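The protein record passed on for reference:
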Amino acid sequence: MPDPEAVAEVAANWLRRSEVDLRTAQTLLAARESLEPWVVAFHAQQSAEKCVKAALIIEQLRFPRTHELERLASLPQTD
């Protein structure tokens, strides 16, 4: 079983990266006149994906290399 502190640190790294994507999306949204909407959506999706992956790491569930939120969210849950 992995060290709980190590697991928490890996999850925290994913959450920090998620925060960067979220702040990027917010900054871009504030400048909406100068960009395509998909750019904001991309960073928002990336933020959500990293949050889901952090939760999966905390639960110690393996996940595939994918950007599909639905696929990640449908992984088996622990009881």
Summary: The chain has three helices and no strands. Residues 4 and 69 are 25 Å apart (CA to CA). The mean pLDDT is 89.
